[in-house]
Amino acid sequence: LVLTAWPAWQRRRGVTRRKRLVGVMKIVGLTGGIASGKSTVSRWLAAQDGVEVVDLDVLVRRLQTPGSVVVRRIKRAFPGCVSPEGVLDREALGAEVFGDAAKRKTLNALLRWPIQLTLLGCVAKHWRRGTDVLVLDAPLLFETNLDAVCALTVVVSVESKDLQVQRLLERRPGTLDVKAALDRVDSQMPLVEKARRADIVIDNSKSIADLEVHLDDFLLPRLRRRILLWRLNSLPGSLALAAALFVGKTILSIILRSA
Length: 259
Hints:
The protein is an alpha/beta fold. The protein is built from 11 helices and 5 strands, in the order H-E-H-E-H-H-H-H-E-E-H-H-H-E-H-H. Strands 2-3-1-4-5 form a 5-stranded parallel sheet, with helices on both faces. It is elongated.
């Protein structure tokens, strides 16, 4: 009751003027592989009414400002990746950890709690604002068990690892060779496994134009159906459904009696 009433109270106070889609904020997890097109889908979702996106890559970059606590911890573990001025060299760090599972585990352990605390603050901020649907754009959604807090999970996939490598090389010409690109792709959970765990899988093996058509024709209708179900399952939605059923039953009874 409190979670349902709070956004309505916020709206009356003028905190948000957008038309609400649901009574309680729902979290959608968005993930995919490297060079699978997740960022394109994230931007598309951010343009939908009632949807806000939290990009975990952006959160990580904010935590990695020069001289920050996170950068100092990274410097102790990977001294060659931070300059004397406290500036993190992301390219050097990537080259060091993407091909080494043990180093990658060390880095993830350094970042886990700062990221989770910052993310918790973002989620709380959106809940206070009365956000309807909050999308967590998280490359490691399943690896970090963030899917446990999501009402819906979406994976952006492609048909093969070779296509990921090809796109990654095209996106960063001259900065990566095939081995480095493959190491980055292999550093994450296989797309096949992510797709198996997801509620919705978006195939982005073709062009951007094909992806946009797929989003409009496939993802948008499914999202709308989910939003409708969430609205009906919320307290205001349940009351509205009960009222509609009562009115419908009353009208039907009147019609039958008059017949």
